[in-house]
Amino acid sequence: MQSTSVCIIGAGPGGTMAALRLAKDNIPFVIVDKDEFPREKICGDALSGKVPHIIRRLSPEILERFEEKCKPMHSFGIRFIAPGNYVFDVPFIENYNAEKHPVPGYTVKRKLLDAFMVEEVSNIAGEKLMTACTVMSIEKGEDGFIIDTSSGQIQAKMIIDASGAASSFKAPYPKPEPEPKKTALAVRTYYKGVKGLHPENFIELYFLENILPGYFWIFPLPDGLANIGIGIRKDVVLKKKINLSAVMDEIIRNNPLVSPRFRDAERLGKPAACRLPLGNPRFRIAGERYMLAGDAAHLVDPLTGEGVGNALYSGFIAAEQAIDCFNENRFDDAFMLAYGQRIRRVLGKEMSISTNFQKMLKYPRMVKWIAKRADGNKHIPGLMSSMFTDLDHRKKLLNPIFILRVLMNR
User: Which domain holds residue 377?
Assistant: First the structure.
């Protein structure tokens, strides 16, 4: 049996970020993952500005190596397509200037991102990184946990569980399954040769009437590729008996804004499916000697489906909470509340806004009315851009009266 201060379960973005942050303060850890890397990971492959921001905060040198090795495509905004074919281009940073602004976002295959992060951990952790290692069960002891794995037992004073929402091992702490209304089902595939991609690599979100409250997406990737997919809330899929692959193909073949762009495109491989635990968890994500991070904490953005940035942030925050625990020699339930409070402070407002907008998407007539009012409204693009950079504007967007006044040009 090997002993360590922190056992990190899961070597995705949340787990590897936690490991790298712990290493900066020389906190011993072991990180385990059931997979070998590089691995395929079903994802939209779009990384918001949170990703370069938090990696740069950890280490500017790591961000430089990421750009050099993975060669991600820089993405500068989002193109929203609303019912009625209203199109809104929203830059991540208004009046972007490369000389003074940081990179606003990326698109890159998750396979490359995850492999890069694991390599960074491997360089500092050596044999403490255990891949192809399955967690069988976890038992709570007086001074921590015993983690039983396919490669032997690990004794740890703390656990950071970044194993996702569908892990099968038995744990001595609550880890609720996502409810249907708090889960999105998604299908994605890759195409080569899609025409009409935005010159500044805006990702495209199509909020089409027949798939609300979900959306169809087109995300440009390096080497002339595009990630194409569709995501809809699970309860809606079950109620309407929606075949996501069939609906995606129907949009590609027949939607007037989409189909001409795919006329000469080639699909690469079969569609793949995944589920996303949508954010704003109402359960405890930390307790005595444990924390949940990333998808295990249900931190996927309810509107956009983005999870990588939130996973990286939660891994970083979990590691800093663990550092505080060892500095203060406190691992009790009350002390661990600080982790959940910090997650809510950093990510909570944004997820509340996304939740409210996602709920609104259930009403196509309302969405159409808003899109019609917003069309040509000079305040809308700037207001939406400010959501990505200005916390005060995010708070205002929680107020429906403020939104109504903007739509009415008041």
Answer: 360-407
Q: Is residue 382 part of a domain?
A: yes
What percent of the chain has pLDDT above 90?
68
Predicted local confidence at residue 91, as pLDDT: 83
Counting the structural domains of the chain, the total is: 1
The reply to whether 23 falls in a domain is no
Buried b (16+ CB within 10 A) or exposed e, 145-171: bbbbbeeeebbbbbbbbbbbbebebeb
C-alpha dist (Å) from residue 153 to 22, 42, 147, 273: 21, 30, 6, 33
Place of tokens 């991600």: 72
CA pseudo-torsion sign 283, 9, 301, 277 = negative
Q: What is the pLDDT of residue 366?
A: 73
Residue 1 amino acid letter: M
CB 30 within 8 A of CB 130: yes
For 150-175, how does the pLDDT look when each residue is reduced to its tens digit (9 = 90+)? 999 999 999 999 999 888 898 999 98
106-107 and 266-277: which strand pairing? unpaired
